[in-house]
Amino acid sequence: MSPKTVLRASTALALCISTSAAMAQDTTITIATVNNGDMIRMQGYTDRFTEETGINVEWVTLEENVLRQRVTTDITTNGGQFDIMTIGMYEAPIWGANGWLVPLDNLSEDYNVDDILPAMRGGLSHDGTLYAAPFYGESSMVMYRTDLMEAAGLEMPAAPTWDFIREAAAAMTDRENDINGICLRGKPGWGEGGAFINAMANSFGARVVDENWQAQLDSEAWANTLNFFNGMMQESGPAAFATNGFNENLSLFNQGLCGMWIDATVAASFVTNPNDSEVADSVGFALAPDNGLGPRSNWLWAWALAIPAGTQQSDAALQFIEWATSADYIELVAENEGWANVPPGARQSLYDNPNYAAVPFAQMTLDSILSANPSEPTVDPVPYTGIQFMAIPEFAGFWTEVSQEFSNAYAGQQTVEEALARAQDIVNEALEAAGYQ
Amino acid sequence: MARAVTTQRKALNTALAWLVGLVIFFPILWTILTSFKTEAEAIANPPIILFFDWTLENYGVVQERSNYVRFLWNSVIIAGGSTLLGILIAIPAAWSMAFVPSRRTKDILLWMLSTKMLPAVGVLYPIYLLCIQLGVLDNRIALVVILMLINLPIIVWMLYTYFKEIPGEILEAARMDGAGLKEELLYVLTPMAVPGIASTILLNFILAWNEAFWTLNLTSVDAAPLTAFIASYSSPEGLFFAKLSAASTMAIAPILILGWFSQKQLVRGLTFGAVK
């Protein structure tokens, strides 16, 4: 090779490198996300990503419902305001099917997509194509006070039944000292009390619709579910349980005012953190209860990162997603903040790691996630996927209305039977209008 | 002849006024106090009112996580711009309705007010699509125009009410002295209606400052005001009440200070014409 050719080649190479470096330096991606602890922690490490790649990151952090409205408006109008959106298991398959998301089918080998827990991968895919990468995943489980359980002379099984939970709740309730045997979500909202009761109904043999999309809320199984929930909460729950959601129950539990709390596995790191919880050293974990019918009452959820189809920066967005949902990111957080604070529930390798196995709630979180089956969530067959939700666009609207009816029943404004009759009409009307029936 | 007010009655009225004031102000006071607590103290039951370990940690965290000044500047531009633009359009409109009314003036006023009854979400998609087409999503000027249009009926109504209190003969006298329309508006009407205009400006500035539907839905990074700043601290999974309170305190502080210094004008304007 002549010196002239070498010179030309090196000049071209230098030009390419400097151009791509300049392009990377100028690239800024905008990410819409929720204000959850793990997401905020991720924002703190963004500088490292920028250092590694030269890609700048702008964050738009919003409250969950505002975020949902905001990103839905943007994606349906092709607004292009965001390069990455934080979405859940409910949106990912629906939006993927509509062609609103970029398929994540060209992830690098180093990323090891097969390491993602199958339940998470399945829930974030449509027709076998992954549309969102899980940042953290969760199921639900029982968190209970070991000291109160012991004082009540009971022992929590690893996989309790609803009858045991009710008996234990009654035994732990101490009204004089404001201790409620059990704290559960009763707040209206499809993602609040609506999610809990739907997952609970699965374990009672209930289903929202039959194979022909006919509402089944007038069934005996639904009446049993709601009467059991309402009865147990009236006996052993907080006075205002009809308006309590995740945060209200977390607050009660951390102050030592709940014997048991059945909720998201992600709460385990909050209730065992001595900086926030007064009962951090006396918390035990068990699988969400069942009734011996097959399905347990736990749900499955993931907060995941997806690329909207309207973005102009899909390569940079994919780079960020690979970085933020990688095993290396988990290591980075563990190194700086300890294993209890890493984003859980997304990768198998995390649960194979002996350091993480030492975290008290790690195994129960994994067992809860693995025991959830969104493809067959109920005893009798259903035409939808999803445990605490039906993966259809209309669900969020009508289930919010249904949960409002249920909350009214918990608050004594109507009977359980009246609430279920109204819920039956709401679901049938919505499904008929949407053309399912 | 006015009735003599006894000292006892005066004291009772004063105490009652303070009580009502405290009840109204209590949520703000509670937010401010919570912003100086730790997260654990913020959710303590029974609540701790004053005797806690005062800390500025939450303000530090908020300052570190968010670019407060950028949000504040956007709020000032959007609220200030929409209010001033609205006033410029509303003064001539209210003048014509108050001093040269037609048969349809009352109907027009009512129609203008009725546009406030339309739920904002009903026009979210058309406005969002318009913003995309015009390339003004996440743009402060777009928000200035939209908030001005939203608040314009209130501005016109308020100014119309104040202008109606001004005797038309004064304007006629000015005209007879050779004042044109511009002089009449600028040198006669406006100075006489200063308390009314000032209170209209203040009230609309507050309304625009607090507007949280359009400012959240049409912004992302560049034009996001303080409403978006607060929304970023609300969490469905995690107790961050102390940090949320710190963010809220920082967001309401400018408007509280403005309200405090202009309360005389505000009260004078709001009671303008109330007692004849």
Task: State the low-pLDDT regions of chain B, or none.
Answer: none
**What is the CATH level 1 assignment of the largest domain in chain A?**
Alpha Beta
Structural class of chain B: mainly alpha
In the CATH hierarchy, what is the architecture of the domain at 66-232 in chain B at level 2?
Answer: Orthogonal Bundle
Could you give the distance between the termini of chain B? 16 Å
What is the H/E string of chain A? HEHHEHEHHEEEHHEHHHEHEEHHHHHHH
CA-based gyration radius of chain B? 23 Å
Largest interface: A-B, 43 and 29 residues
What does the largest sheet of chain A look like? 8 strands, mixed
The CATH superfamily of the largest domain in chain A appears as Periplasmic binding protein-like II
Note the total helix count of chain A: 19
Strand fraction of chain A equals 5-15%
Global mean pLDDT of chain A: 91
Offer a concise description of the structure.
Helix content of chain A is 46%, strand content 14%. Chain A has 19 helices and 10 strands.
Describe the structure.
The complex is a heterodimer of chains A (437) and B (276). With 437 residues, chain A is of the alpha/beta class. Chain A has two domains: 3-137 and 301-357, D-Maltodextrin-Binding Protein, domain 2 (3-Layer(aba) Sandwich); 140-300 and 375-433, Periplasmic binding protein-like II (D-Maltodextrin-Binding Protein, domain 2). Helices cover 46% and strands 14% of the residues of chain A. Chain A has helices spanning 3-26, 37-44, 46-53, 64-76, 91-97, 118-123, 146-151, 162-172, 193-203, 220-236, 246-254, 268-271, 314-324, 327-337, 348-352, 354-357, 362-371, 395-410, 416-433; strands spanning 28-34, 56-62, 84-88, 125-126, 129-130, 133-145, 180-183, 258-264, 283-287, 300-306. In chain A, the strands form two sheets. In chain A, strands 1, 2, 3, 6, 7, 8, 9 and 10 form an eight-stranded mixed β-sheet that branches. In chain A, strands 4-5 form a two-stranded antiparallel sheet. In chain A, helix 18 runs antiparallel to helix 19 (416-433). The radius of gyration of chain A is 24 Å and the shape is globular. Chain B has a domain at 66-232: MetI-like fold. In chain B, helix 10 (194-210) crosses helix 14. Chain B is mostly helical and 276 residues long. Classes of the chains: A alpha/beta (437), B mainly alpha (276). Chain A binds chain B through residues 30, 32, 34-37, 40, 43, 58, 60-66, 69-70, 73-74, 77-82, 178, 191, 245-247, 250-251, 254-255, 257, 264, 266-267, 270, 275-276, 278, and chain B through 39-40, 43-45, 65, 124-125, 128-129, 132, 137-138, 216-217, 220-221, 224, 228, 231-240.
